[in-house]
Amino acid sequence: MGFPSCLLHNVTKVAGDFTLAMQSLVATLGASQCSYVRCVKPNSRMQPGLFENHYVATQVCSCIQDEPKNTERQAALFTDSMCK
């Protein structure tokens, strides 16, 4: 006993729509530039109002190693301003 033809048509349409949506998503992602926000913790004690320069600088340097093309200049400007 087979499935009714209207059910098979609906399943085929949903599968086709899904395939087109996935192709569109992959194309959109392929054409976009990856960017992200990295949170920097201000201190190792997790206390408000406390800012540890070395602790923050270490995290910024880690960002530079992870993504040197995008963050090197921003990190340099940030660490220069911290040292003044």
Write the layout of secondary structure elements.
Blueprint: H1 5-31, H2 53-66, H3 68-83
Helix pairs in contact: 2-3
How would you portray this structure in words?
It is a single chain. The chain is an all-alpha fold and 84 residues long. Helices cover 68% and strands 0% of the residues. Helix 2 (53-66) runs antiparallel to helix 3 (68-83). The mean pLDDT is 77.
List keywords for this structure.
84 residues, 3 helices
Major sheet description: none
List low-confidence stretches: none
H and E order: HHH
Q: Name the shape in a single word.
A: elongated
Radius of gyration, CA atoms, in whole angstroms:
25 Å
What number of structural domains do the residues give? 2
- Average pLDDT score: 77
> What is the count of helical runs?
3
Structural class: mainly alpha
Alpha carbon gap, first and last residue: 80 Å
Quick one: how many beta strands? 0
Percent of residues in β-strands: under 5%
Helix content: 55-70%
Short description:
The chain has 84 residues and is an all-alpha fold.
